[in-house]
């Protein structure tokens, strides 16, 4: 049968929007033929068995789960989320919570209601690469602010904001950051910096998007309060997700913000509502405390992964500098100046290991010599093999 979608190259009858002309999507599937150290996938043996809750959702809640639902999400789940975030010191009510299809969807919605083409968004350099692509689809411009061990350098940001203000330039509308176990660097923003960023948001009139998927995946050390819990004037939008505490395939996340932001985001949520079936399953697991048990199991497992990766990096890439995070999924590996991370990542693939060149995480000027490694997906023994292969790739680059 003839395929009705045959296209000629650059089919001239498609009048794509300018922003879509050169776009292509990146696959989110894990590379099963390689040692996968690039993407932030869940550890397969820690994926939950939700068959009981799914059965219950289908049988006892058929009308709710098989019907359209409110774009804001199921009221019971929104109440559960209010309780879940209260444990982190975030005080909010049901009206401040909207259920979305993952944190990325929350960011997309925030952009829809705040960003017009050419508006500036403040980000760390480097930052979460998928956030960069979402922001680019909204034609945002970037202000790239460096980080140190304490997070985004608020003093650098303040100087730039003050200079722009006195020059009468347009000021950024949003700041996007991942303050806990930052993707890709693993850095956790200090309490002082969190206060500073909130102060700047109030002074210069921007909104902070606090993307916090890794907060509960802490192996050791003291948690720092979320910015949302320090926010007394509604300048922070908090994004949460089930992806790292349960399963990314659930596609459940949430946005916490002042009611006027939530109301506008709901008006622009054009998905017909997040699947009520998945919402019901997640809410049963939250209410029954299985999520808490699941998080404890993930922490136990991933701590072993992190330790294995750090030890093997010290053994096989002793010249690299490694930031050891107290939680989350990622290690940021800074290579000697003469090593090009793209070349190293390319060679590593040939040796059977997939890594992620740090270059992709930069909004503007990329750094050429950093790699992001992810320890969440592979078994510890595979991590060991992968880092060993990476070390061989590094050695062969060195010997030319
Ligand atoms: N934000 C950051 C910083 C992430 O690293 C990830 C996972 N890669 C997410 C959000 C998860 O997004 P979602 O909830 O849409 O799965």
From TrEMBL:
This is 2-aminoadipate transaminase. Homodimer. InterPro entries: Aminotransferase_I/II_large (IPR004839), Class-I_PLP-dep_aminotransf (IPR050859), PyrdxlP-dep_Trfase (IPR015424), PyrdxlP-dep_Trfase_major (IPR015421), PyrdxlP-dep_Trfase_small (IPR015422). The keyword Aminoacyl-tRNA synthetase does not apply. Residues 52-390 form the Aminotransferase class I/classII large domain. GO terms for biological process: alpha-amino acid metabolic process. PANTHER family: AMINOTRANSFERASE, KYNURENINE_ALPHA-AMINOADIPATE AMINOTRANSFERASE, MITOCHONDRIAL. Its cofactor is pyridoxal 5'-phosphate. Its EC number is 2.6.1.-. GO terms for molecular function: pyridoxal phosphate binding; transaminase activity.
């Amino acid at each position: 049968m003839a395929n009705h979608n045959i296209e000629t190259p650059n089919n001239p009858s498609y009048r794509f929007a300018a922003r879509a002309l050169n776009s292509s999507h990146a696959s989110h599937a894990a590379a099963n033929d390689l040692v996968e150290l690039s993407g932030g996938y869940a550890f397969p043996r820690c994926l939950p068995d939700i068959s009981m809750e799914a059965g219950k959702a289908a049988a006892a809640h058929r009308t709710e789960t098989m019907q359209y639902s409110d774009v804001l999400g199921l009221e019971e789940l929104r109440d559960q989320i209010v309780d879940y975030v209260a444990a982190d010191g975030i005080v909010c009510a049901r009206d401040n919570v909207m259920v979305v299809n993952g944190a990325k969807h929350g960011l997309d919605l925030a952009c829809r209601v705040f960003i017009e083409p050419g508006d500036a968004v403040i980000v760390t350099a480097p930052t979460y690469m998928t956030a960069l692509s979402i922001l680019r689809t909204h034609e945002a411009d970037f202000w790239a602010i460096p980080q140190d061990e304490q997070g985004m350098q608020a003093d650098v940001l303040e100087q730039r904001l003050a200079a722009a203000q006195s020059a009468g330039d347009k000021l950024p509308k949003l700041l996007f950051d991942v303050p806990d176990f930052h993707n890709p660097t693993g850095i956790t923003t200090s309490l002082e910096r969190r206060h500073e960023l909130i102060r700047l948001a109030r002074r210069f009139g921007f909104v902070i998007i606090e993307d916090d998927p890794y907060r509960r995946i802490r192996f050791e050390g003291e948690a720092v309060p979320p910015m949302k819990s320090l926010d007394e004037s509604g300048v922070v939008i908090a994004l949460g997700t089930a992806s790292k505490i349960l399963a990314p395939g659930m596609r459940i996340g949430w946005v916490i913000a002042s009611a006027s932001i939530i109301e506008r985001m709901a008006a622009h949520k054009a998905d017909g509502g997040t699947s009520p079936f998945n919402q019901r399953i997640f809410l049963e697991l939250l209410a029954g405390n299985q999520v808490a048990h699941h998080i404890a199991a993930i922490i136990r497992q991933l701590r072993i992964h992190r330790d294995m990766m750090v030890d093997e990096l010290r053994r096989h890439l002793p010249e690299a500098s490694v930031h050891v995070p107290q939680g989350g999924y990622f290690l940021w590996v800074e290579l000697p100046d003469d090593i090009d991370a793209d070349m190293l990542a390319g060679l590593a693939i040939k040796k059977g290991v997939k890594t992620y060149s740090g270059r992709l995480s930069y909004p503007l000027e990329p750094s050429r010599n950093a790699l992001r490694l992810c320890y969440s997906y592979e078994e510890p023994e595979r991590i060991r093999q992968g880092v060993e292969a990476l070390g061989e790739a590094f050695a062969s680059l060195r010997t030319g």
